[in-house]
Amino acid sequence: MPILVAIALSVRPSHCVDGFEARWLAEALRVREQVDGRVDDAEAVADARRHPGDGEARILRRAVLLGRTDNLVEAVSNWSGRARLVLVVLALLAAFGGFGAALAVVGDGGRPVNVVWVLGALLGVHLLSLLLWCVGFVMAGRDRG
Fold first, then answer.
1. Exposed site from 34, 76, 78, 84, fewest CB < 10 Å?
2. Is the pLDDT of residue 129 over 80?
């Protein structure tokens, strides 16, 4: 378990921004500029224009440069580490919960098990959630129409 936590919390240095995080920063800056107005980005735009690549690469370069000045790169990196930790914990909870549910339905092996009841117990919650999702989907469509 400590190894999984160490992997989940591994945070790259702030100067390493991969494609997903750069796009995330670009979207965060777009929303921020939409709400607060344009930021002072003359240096970032000049550096992005000197940077080789297409328009997307220049936009991402501007986002990373502005994200470093506003500490958004560190915030995204910290959030990603926490999200990985939550993902690992939820995956372990799902695995143990599924194993426990299957063990409770199948029993100890001392008595015969009705296969229909076992499948109904294991898949019933999923079927119920699917039906609730479908009802919600239909109701949302009815509200729009």
1. 34
2. yes
